[in-house]
Every structure is written in C-alpha cells, then in structure tokens.
Amino acid sequence: MTLLGILKYPDPFLKTKAKKVESIDDGIRALIRDMTETMYQARGIGLAATQVGVDKRVVVLDVPDDEERRERGKNLMALINPEILESSGSIKYEEGCLSVQGINADVERASNVKIRALDREGNAIEFEAEGLFAIALQHEIDHIDGILFIDRLSPLKRDMIKRKIKKALEAEERAL
Ligand code: NI
Questions:
Q1: Which element (helix H / strand E) includes 80?
Q2: Which of 26, 48, 76, 176 is the most exposed, fewest CB within 10 Å of its CB?
Q3: Does residue 154 lie within any of the structural domains?
Q4: Alpha-carbon distance 82 to 29, whole Å?
Q5: Domain count, the chain
Q6: Phi, psi at residue 120, to the nearest 5°?
Q7: Is residue 2 part of a domain?
Q8: Is 5 part of a structural domain of the chain?
Q9: Is 126 a catalytic residue?
Q10: CA end-to-end distance (rounded Å), the chain
C-alpha cells in the first residue's frame, strides 16, 4: 500500500479529462487500494484518480450515512469508468475538496442520479443515489472530466475564490 500525493489547485493536471480504463488488471486494483488509503488518510469521502496524477477514469468513495458519525469502510466503493445515466431534482450543499484546500462553497447539483460503472472485478453495475451520496458521485465524476467544484460556481464567486487561493499561496511562498 502506498500513500499517494494529492494534487492541489491550481495544478494543471486537475484539468485532465481522464482516459477510459480498457482492462481491469492488478495495476488498476493496486491503484484503487492506494487511492482508498490516501482518501482515508486525508479524511476525505471521495477521491478521483486525476487528483493523484493518474490519467484514468477511476474514483473511490466512502460516503457516510451520518456525517457526524463516520464508519470507515462501511460504504466503500470503487468505480471504474462511471457514467451518469440519469439525473433529476436539485440540491445545494456546501462542498469542499481535497485538491482545493481551505475553501468551502455552496454548489447546486442534481439531487438524484443513476450511475453505471464497472466494479473492481470488472462487473457492470447500475445503481441510484440521492442526497450526499449523489453529490459526492457528481463531484468525483467531475474530477475525472477535469472539473473542480469551484468551476461550478458563478463567475463572480469563482474569481473571488481563485484570488483568495492565489493570495494564500503567495503568502505561503513568502513564508518559506
Ligand atoms: Ni474533490
């Protein structure tokens, strides 16, 4: 098991539209194990391969039923080549991201989604999700399309956040 480095905005690799996984081999399964460990280490509820510098459509999630009481591993799921088949409704939630440090902002997304993907054994799976689970799925699938949650904000809000991050990074550089 290897802990992977999580890329931070504005790393240009985060804009990568990741490639489809053509064959699920031991390399992919090792990637999934490493991503899972990295997600837990960072206390995240989801992680996409592009966030660890890997150009593949792979995401891992472990979305708690109750945000106040996380049970590690209970809802752990690895999805390969996930696609949103249907989406409906709307929900606003204050999102954060392991690649966008120190920023949280309200994002509006579909409240219900139907997903198709492959599991780590290569079986085709389809399922429906709602609430925080649906939000996390959309957030992670965005990542493998090269989209960050801040890209989903209004241009005004997005620019404000980007300036704030730039300032924080500059302050960090001066501190070194
Ligand atoms: Ni994220």
A1: strand 76-88
A2: 176
A3: yes
A4: 16
A5: 1
A6: -70, -15
A7: no
A8: no
A9: no
A10: 31
Q: How many CA atoms lie within 13 A of 174 on its CB side?
A: 6
Name residue 25's amino acid: D
Q: Which tokens is 7 given?
A: 């890329």
The pair of structure tokens assigned to 123 is 């079986």
Distance 99 CA to ligand 1 centre (A): 6
User: Do 36 and 73 contact (CB within 8 A), yes or no?
Assistant: no
Of 94, 121, 140, 173, which is the active-site residue?
A: 140
pTM score, two decimals? 0.95
- Give the dihedral sign, CA 79/86/138/53: positive
Output the CA 59–ligand 1 centroid distance in Å.
10
| Digit-coded pLDDT (tens) for 85-123 | 999 999 999 999 999 988 999 999 999 999 999 999 999
| 43 CA → ligand 1 middle, Å | 12
Q: How far is the CA of 58 from the centre of ligand 1 (A)?
A: 13
Domain CATH number, residue 163: 3.90.45.10
Q: How far is the CA of 25 from the centre of ligand 1 (A)?
A: 25
